[in-house]
Amino acid sequence: MSMRAVITLFGATGDLVRGKLIGALARLYRRGVLSDRTPILFVGRRDYSLPEFIASTGYTPREGEEGFLGLWHYGRMDIERDGIEVLDALLAPLHERHDTGGNLLTYLAISPHLFARVVPLIRAPRPDAWSRVVFEKPFGHDTNSARELNRVVEARFPEESVYRIDHYLGKELVQTILALRFANPIFEHIWSAQVVDHVQITVAEEVGVGSRSGYYERSGALRDMVQNHLLQLVALTAMEPPESLDADSVREAKTSLLRAVRTPRCMDFTTGQYARGTIHGEEIPAYREEQGIAPGSTVETFLALRLTIDAPRWEGVPFYLRTGKRLSAREARVDVVLRPPEAGFLRPWVDKLSANVISIRVQPDEGVDIAFLVKEPGASMRLGEAVLDF
Ligand code: BG6
């Protein structure tokens, strides 16, 4: 069924719209979720005509996307100066022409420090209309600012219409974690301190800060990756089973796990920043040499963290998290490393070879594998490593 609503995207000329959202909307169009009754209003500060805006995005329709550009509209608005009437004037003709019933999805693909400024520019939804408002992380820069922002948002929109997005949750292999853990006795029964030695969660990136210096200098790896993407991976990997798959139950299971995470101390983490070097033979500037970065910046582009979870299931099981930009490979994965077996008679082999590891490869080579030891064919007892790969 196609959707009848106006989609408004703030941050039209930003990285997120260009890099992710246009492609995502194009896929929804191909699948028939978006139709000519779903106009898309891109809102940006630049004084573009629609063709100029289209050209600036570099988007060209693929097969099945003919007609997608027909949904696009561009509206100029300076969110730091303009008032609510400017957005009203952009939206009114679209609602009317496409008979949307006032339905509105608003996506704030803008720098987070502007959220509180933009919220009052969006009208509270009409009671009879469908409404969604989507925020990208980081939601505030610390607990107090996140609470304050929540107050602004709650004063305007009903909670059911507010989406605080973490795009990692859309990744297929992240969603697989729940299926793997709770649909399979072979995993369900070993998922605890009795069998698990430690867990490693890695999100390594090859990309640098790119053109996002303004944002990244305020954020750093902790706010950009850890408090959101990596903690979502921790929560899905470690939480107790939710009562059901509805949003409240899943959130409840995640938050009770996160509450059990002990506040890390200095000795639990280390940070770093990328220096000049080469990746795949290409010369890469240091973080401090990137455009828009302060030459003496101390913002971290790498972070490694040891978490302890005060829950009976995870007693004595460290969770090691690490993430960074400009690392030697792009790879996101969760490795659940099991304890060595109790029986000692094969111990020399077991110690020499790798332990049992269950690996969830989130990207790029999506899949799950289990590393284990087998007897190598032949007359004597020699062990070798094997991998079951899905
Ligand atoms: C974003 C971060 O949330 O996630 C970026 O702001 C990061 O810095 C990106 O590069 C990684 O996401 P993905 O899906 O490209 O792995």
Give a brief outline of the structure:
With 390 residues, the chain is α/β, with parallel strands linked by helices. It contains 10 helices and 16 strands.
- State the end-to-end distance: 33 Å
Total number of helices: 10
Q: Classify the secondary structure makeup into a structural class.
A: alpha/beta
Q: Helix-strand pattern, N to C?
A: EHEHEHEHEHEHHEHHEEEEEEHEEE
Question: Approximately how much helix is present in the residues?
Answer: 25-40%
| Spans of at least 5 consecutive residues with low confidence | none
Count every beta strand, where a strand is a DSSP E run of 2 or more residues. Answer: 16
Task: Please describe the topology of this protein.
Layout: E1 6-10, H1 15-30, E2 40-44, H2 50-57, E3 72-76, H3 84-97, E4 104-108, H4 115-118, E5 131-136, H5 143-156, E6 162-165, H6 172-183, H7 185-188, E7 196-204, H8 213-238, H9 247-259, E8 269-272, E9 277-279, E10 282-284, E11 302-307, E12 319-324, E13 331-338, H10 347-352, E14 357-363, E15 367-375, E16 383-389
Parallel strand pairs: 1-2, 1-4, 2-3, 4-5, 5-6, 7-12
Antiparallel strand pairs: 7-13, 8-11, 9-10, 11-12, 13-14, 14-15, 15-16
This protein binds 6-O-phosphono-beta-D-glucopyranose.
